[in-house]
Amino acid sequence: MPDSTTRKPLPQKAFLRVAVPVPLRRLFDYRMPSIPVYRGQRIRIPFGKRQLLGIAIDSCDRTEIDPDRVLSVTEVLSEAMISEDILDLLLWASGYYHHPPGEALVLALPPSLRRRKSVFRKSSLMDQFWQATPDAPALPGLRRAPRQQAVLEALMRSSRPLDGHALKATSGILRKLLDKHWITPVEPLESGLIPEQPLVLNQEQADSLKAIHQAAGSFQCLLLEGVTGSGKTEVYLQAIDDCLERGLQALVMIPEIGLTSQLRSRFELRFPGRVGVIHSGIPEKDRRTVWFQAAEGRLSVLLGTRTALFTPLPRLGLIVIDEEHDGSYRQGDGFRYSARDLAVKYAGQRNIPVILGSATPALETIANVALKGYRHLRLSQRPKGIPQPRWRIADLRSLPESRRLADFTAHSMEQQLAAGNQVLFFVNRRGLAPVLMCKDCGWCYDCVDCDARMVLHRRSSGLYMLCHHCGAQTRVPGQCALCKSASLIEVGAGTQKFEAELQQRFPDYELLRIDSDVSPARRTELFSRICDGRSQILVGTNMLTKGHDFPHLTLTVIANADAGLFSPDFRAPERISQAIIQVAGRAGRSSSGEVIIQTRHPDHPLLLSLLREGYGAFARKNLQERLQHRLPPYAHLAVFRAEARVNQAARRLLMRVVAYRRQNADEFAGVELWGPIAPAMEKKFGRFHQQLVLCADSRRRLHRVLGLVIQKFEAEPQRSVRWSVEVDPFDLY
Would you give the DSSP letter of residue 87? Predict the structure, then answer.
């Protein structure tokens, strides 16, 4: 546990330097309390008219303000300190990403510990392991309490105790069953809860595991590039097993909450009672409990999304980043950081190895094999000799716009479904139709606050319009806003329309739709039905492309591969290639599979390159193009963004940066400015956005210039314009 028993208090000096969660890139000085204060300790401090939670950073004898005006600390909170290593990581990240340190440091605490409430620890019912008691009623006996009955049925079917997460229960349901004496808690290693035995590795897996073992106890980045279904997870599990045998802990990072359930189940089978999960979808009490368990060393394996990186693990010996290429590792607002890149930095600080796993590694990661000495490990074959799925292209050019299913695709689906297999239909757009248009004059229903079309959606109560950017909802109009015509038509198709059309085409098969319109709890239930083979047709977005293992799935259909082929963003070819390879990899993981790409551009060079040469050849070509055009990873970018209610106000602020560069040409030497330009969506949430891109061959020069610009504009308060900086931007346009 990161507390006063493991560190020395700060030197008793005149002032205490504190990080405060406010949007200012500096620390604040307060009078040093008479009691010991530790680095990383939570304290209550007066800030203006408010009382805020601050983090103690250092002590000092001098302050930049009048000593008589320095305020005293209100209270020193004794529990839940930020560990030294996490503190160092986030202070470094605050400087690298030019973000206020106080706002960065609060990420190291669960939300409830960021407030001034007292800290208490209570064992979570969800993390306990349970078994049914002899007093449990014979089933079915709880028809009026179906959720309680489902938990009891799961326990009675299982040969081993299960925790609340595996039971898909809630703390309330478990409490009711416990009060009735129908379930009882057990120790995780009792009653036959024996760890699952490791699988036999093939030669490539064994070689990769050997390389990971050799890196133990030292900092090394290992890129584990394995084709989909090649057994990367088994390599992770055996590498973690070795780590735990040495009395250490392991951190496993995943890009999406949706992957948690399946991975947690697999990790719990291998390391029963030793796995904890942290992500934003977990109830706050459970999240806080896991945080304390990890900090106290009572958890051996921590599984989680971005912020799991900032959970204290005192005996950390290995970091695994699964699907390392995924953009979800990048925080898109507020503190804009890359969890993948920070994990590599953190591994260096702790002097431990980090595994970056993916079937489609990020081009920056591939380049770092040569640039930074990453070790490249490859898994080129699926276990048991299962071949990679066959690729086919379905040409949609001869079909009318209203036709969304090629005859060839429909025939292949009929064959696979008749054979008892599953089909995945990938549609990278949710909703019913992306555009509602007037047939007579061409008017389209746009969002009032964003430069975006309102998307037509369907729910049980009827149709409605939704903006996918600001979340605005409204009724479906009865007529055109311009010509008053009632001839409004739907243009394009999202997951809901494909769901309806496929259900009509294949009425004898159960169809499931999975996208962000489906609640997380419902998604977990649907994934269970898919894995059990109870559903035959799956329709979904990117949520279905990341790491899921569907053993009965033999055909993947990419409904419209053209989206993204013509984007101006230099990263677009990489993203569409990764999406295609990843979604294709869901097919044929237990037997031979097939992938059909429906497109109106069957001769597009990117598609042909992927089909004929694979992702590796594409990556080499694209990296060569980036080298020629001085783009990352061979150059370094940052974006200075401005937004305002009035478009010209945002642009004027960025033009001041351009003018500042002209006046200080020597300081800006080696740094190019691109813009100001409007992003692809100029208006969002009722505010206009402009951006200025800074490009440099030297990372040091780029950060020096950023520091100068930030210092200038922080000294000049902007009343009508908000501005922000993003280093190493993931979305450039």
Answer: H
Backbone φ and ψ for 508, nearest 5 degrees, come out as -90, 0
DSSP β-bridge partners for residue 378: 225
Please give the pLDDT value at position 151: 84
Cβ-based neighbour number of residue 727 at 10 Å = 21
CB 597 within 8 A of CB 393: yes
Per-residue CA distances from 611 to 313, 343, 516, 565, 625 (Å): 43, 33, 30, 15, 20
Residue ranges for the chain with pLDDT beneath 70:
1-6, 79-80, 116-124, 127, 138-144, 159, 186-194, 384, 520-521, 545-547, 588-590
Q: How much is the pLDDT for 120?
A: 47
Burial 514-528 (b: 16+ CB within 10 A, else e): bbebbeeeebbebbe
SS3 343: helix
First and final C-alpha spacing in the chain: 43
Q: What is the predicted pLDDT for the residue at 167?
A: 81
pLDDT in the model for residue 189: 45
124 and 171 Cβ atoms separated by less than 8 Å: yes
Q: In the sheet that 455-459 helps form, which strands lie side by side, from edge to edge?
A: 455-459, 462-466, 473-474
Judge whether 231 and 204 are in contact, CB under 8 Å: no
SS3 at position 8: coil
Q: Give the Cα separation of 618 and 574 in Å (integer).
A: 8
Smallest Cα–Cα separation from 533: which of 512, 547, 515? 512
Distance, CA of 240 to chain centre: 22
Query: Are residues 606 and 572 in contact, defined by beta-carbon separation less than 8 angstroms?
Result: no
Q: CA-to-CA distance for 44 and 699, rounded, in angstroms?
A: 37
Helical (H) or strand (E) element with 524: helix 520-531
Give the per-residue pLDDT at 191. Answer: 40
* Residue 405 CB contacts under 8 Å (≥ 6 apart), including other chains: 501, 502, 505, 598
Q: DSSP secondary structure string, 92-144?
A: HHHHHTT--HHHHHGGGS-GGGGSSSPP-----GGGSEEEE-TTSPPSS--TT
Is residue 2 within 8 Å of residue 295, measured between CB atoms? yes
- Between helix 232-245 and helix 203-215 the angle, nearest 10°, is 40
Tokens of 447: 């969002």
* DSSP result, 209-263: HHHHHHHTTS-EEEEEEE-TTS-HHHHHHHHHHHHHHTT-EEEEE-S-GGGHHHH
Rounded Cα distance between 378 and 381, Å, is: 9
pLDDT score of 341: 97
Pair 569, 437: CB distance under 8 Å: no
Q: What's the whole-model pTM score? A: 0.85
Return the closest-CA partner of residue 404 out of 586, 247, 599, 174: 599
